[in-house]
Write a structure and sequence with these properties.
Oligomer: heterodimer
Distance between the termini of chain A: 39 Å
CATH superfamily of chain B: Winged helix-like DNA-binding domain superfamily/Winged helix DNA-binding domain
Largest interface: A-B, 27 and 24 residues
Number of domains of chain B: 1
CATH architecture of chain B: Orthogonal Bundle
Order of helices and strands of chain A: HHHHHHHHH
CATH class of chain B: Mainly Alpha
Number of domains of chain A: 2
Strand content of chain B: 5-15%
Shape of chain B: globular
Largest sheet of chain A: none
Structural class of chain A: mainly alpha
Strand content of chain A: under 5%
Number of strands of chain B: 3
Order of helices and strands of chain B: HEHHEEH
Number of strands of chain A: 0
């Protein structure tokens, strides 16, 4: 497969996908999938290195604008976003404090809404599970781990407990701070992003 | 380009007849989506490109005028075939009748003395 041809196809499909953002998620994905299949099928009759042939092929498939116009012209009225949308960023961010259930509720609402695209949903689910509850949890566990390390090495002989604590702490500190920053800033930025996507619609 | 100016009467006419034309292509039996798209784009002037046939087919499917089935293919992934429903056939028959009346009316007006 010629990579330049592959890129031309990928660009074409991405342009189409961008033009269809007003469509419900499932409808958009299905249409882009069908066009992708159509192009793939048409390419089987083409020499892989034939870039001119590929451009002619894409021309026959039509302007992404024309396809989008056909799709949006009589689109199922993209349903009004559910009222629960406004709570989603908050639930994803802070819901974890409600015995973890709040976060789960937020994630379910997030995935069942057409307001956000799949990449937004993935991002919000992965960064980070539990929202701000996770760094709090980590902080607790980190404290416990340090304490355990100290007592165990403090067991044999007559060790200097202070020395043990400092070495353990020095190693963990940069990693811990980085982890804490990512897990605190990550969910906040993602929640802000979710809310911006929501209000833009 | 077929798509474009909303005030272009021919463009509007095309938009109106594209759906019944798809139904008519299915009258003889079920068809593979790819072939349908190629044929419709091939007759010229009816659709803006092969790709515009898919949103059209999706619309017909939502209105239950066509139904689809998946079939294994010798080469490549399974293919989606389109078939006319009873509702689709009724809609097509009604359109054919209306179109014949419409066409003779327009012809008579345009031809003046005819």
């Amino acid at each position: 497969m010629s990579t330049r041809s592959d890129r031309a196809v990928a660009d074409y499909l991405e342009r189409l996908d961008d033009l269809l953002t007003r469509l419900p998620d499932a409808t958009r994905r299905q249409l882009v999938g069908e066009i992708a299949e159509h192009i793939a099928e048409a390419r089987t009759g083409l020499d892989p290195g034939d870039e001119v042939g590929l451009l002619a092929l894409l021309d026959a498939v039509g302007d992404p604008e024309a396809i989008a116009e056909e799709a949006l012209g009589a689109a199922p009225v993209a349903t009004a976003p559910p009222r629960s949308d406004r709570f989603v960023p908050w639930l994803v961010l802070l819901g974890g404090f409600a015995v973890g259930v709040g976060w789960l509720v937020g994630i379910v609402l997030l995935w069942s809404s057409d307001t956000w695209r799949r990449r937004d949903k993935l991002l919000a689910t992965l960064v980070v599970p539990g929202g701000l509850f996770l760094p709090v949890l980590l902080l607790g566990m980190g404290g416990a781990a340090t304490a355990t390390a100290c007592t165990s090495s403090g067991g044999p002989g007559v060790p200097t407990v202070t020395h043990c604590t400092t070495s353990g702490f020095v190693l963990a500190l940069p990693v811990g701070i980085a982890l804490l920053l990512v897990t605190v800033l990550g969910p906040i930025l993602v929640a802000v992003h979710l809310d911006r996507v929501r209000t833009r619609r | 380009m077929v798509a474009g100016d909303d005030r272009d009467p021919v463009a509007q006419l095309r938009r109106g007849v594209a759906e019944p034309c798809v139904l008519a292509l299915l009258r003889a039996g079920e068809r593979y989506g790819f072939d349908l798209a190629r044929e419709l784009a091939g007759v010229g002037g009816l659709v803006a490109g092969e790709g515009t046939v898919y949103p059209l087919l999706a619309r017909l499917r939502r209105r239950q005028l066509v139904e689809t089935t998946w079939k294994e293919s010798a080469q490549g992934p399974p293919r989606r075939y389109y078939r006319l429903t009873a509702k689709g056939k009724a809609e097509l028959d009604a359109f054919v009748e209306q179109w014949q009346q419409f066409r003779s009316t327009v012809d008579a007006v345009l031809g003046g003395d005819r």
